Amino acid sequence: MPDSLLHTSLPACQEGLMAKTEAGNRPRYAQSRKLSNNKWLANNPDYWKDYRFRNPKTTARNRVLQRIRNKQKARTDKGLDTSRHVGIAKMDAVKIFIAAIPDDPA
Known about the structure:
It is a single chain. With 106 residues, this protein is mainly alpha-helical. The protein contains five helices and no strands.
C-alpha cells in the first residue's frame, strides 16, 4: 500500500510521513532523530515499565503476539514453516495449470 494511503492530512500524520521520508533521504536527519530518541529514553528510563503497568490488557496481548512471532520465526529458521510466504511469488515464477487426463477416453 502506498504511503500516501497510510497518512491523512492531520498534522501528526504529516509529521510522521515527513520524518519517514526525510530519514530515508538524509542520513544526518535520521542520525539526529535517533540521537534525540535515545536522549529522551535516557531521561525517561521507566517509561516502558510505567506503560506496561498502566496498560495491562495491551501488555498481555503484546506478549501473546510476541510468543507467536517467536514460534513462527523459530519454525521458519529451521525451514519448517512456509506459511509466511503464501501468495508471494518470485519474479521468475511461472504459473502452471495441471489438468487431470481421464484413463478411458470414450
